[in-house]
Amino acid sequence: MYVYLNRIKRFRDILKHRNIDAALIVPGPNLRYFIGYKVEALERLLILLISSQFKDLNLIVPMLEYERAKSINIKDLNIINYSDEEDPYRTLTNLLKDLKAYKVGVEGSMPFRIAYKLLKGGFNLVEIDDLIYSMRITKDNYEIEMLRKASRVNEEAIREGFKNLKSGISEKELKRIVEERAEELGAEEIPFCIVQSGPNTAIPHAESSDRKIELGDVVLFDVGVRVEGYVSDITRTIVLGEPRSRHRLIYNIVKRAQEKAIEMVRPGVEAETIDLAARNLIEAEGYGKYFIHRTGHGLGLEIHEEPYIRIGNRTVLKEGMVFTIEPGIYIPGEFGVRIEDDIVVTKDGYENLTKLSKDISEIS
To answer: Where are the strands (E) in the chain, listed by range?
Structure first.
């Protein structure tokens, strides 16, 4: 509970500084960040009101969510439920008026139907995504520990994939094995699980197919696992059988590029510097045109969030930021290689949350 109260206090201070009377949070990662409530977006109104001046929090929920919402253990949280015969928008607008909240912060993800009703009610809406991300971009100790847990589950699930890799198994079959193992280990969700083989590995986000894996194939695992809200994102590329010399050449370039980028991580460095460390090495080896995406993205309650490790991002790294480093080379019609680790910026450098081996595996 203390974690959430501390976040809300910090957020109120930010709202006051920006002269914003209140903020409205809809279902999604920000709602989970502030009160730990995981709920799917519904056609019915469900919304959290955080006043910048008053300590009470107000959560408006449909009656069918009321019992679950009562389990939220947050001090000064008022839960207001309504039936299908009642108008929750009237409740919301009356509440805002009672709090004298006319300048209202809203997320970019707020459904238009809600924003439209608020605008018709005479409220001045301002987007607050940047304010929330300014908090979420650095993780506290609890969040980092959850990310460690997610990494351990993810690694074991991928290892299960390695164990079951054999000639004749399909990408989809191997994908199911990885997903089932992650669930057995306590994953609350597998946002994505991509298993690719052969020429499919040259298409970064190609979905797993019915293609049968053959001896000599490059095989790529890209798996996202959520544990207690937080996401691990790991990619490994291996070969079934003896890697060819070209496999080893490309693999080692990508591995060295990733190592170079990771070595650059420390507070005070700009995000694009990390990208350029990997990109420049790959370009110097003559494969720059085959590195077709950014080097990484932030991790947390979302799979992709700030900071983005890309050219042009001058964000200065700070202790507690967490992001992937995942350079790749993709040669159309042949194969692709990507290696992805989850990195935490520490006081003096970095911690690599990903312990899974990065040697190109030879599986007979």
So the answer is: 22-25, 47-51, 57-62, 77-82, 103-106, 124-127, 189-197, 218-227, 230-240, 296-298, 305-309, 322-325, 328-331, 335-338, 341-345, 350-352, 362-363
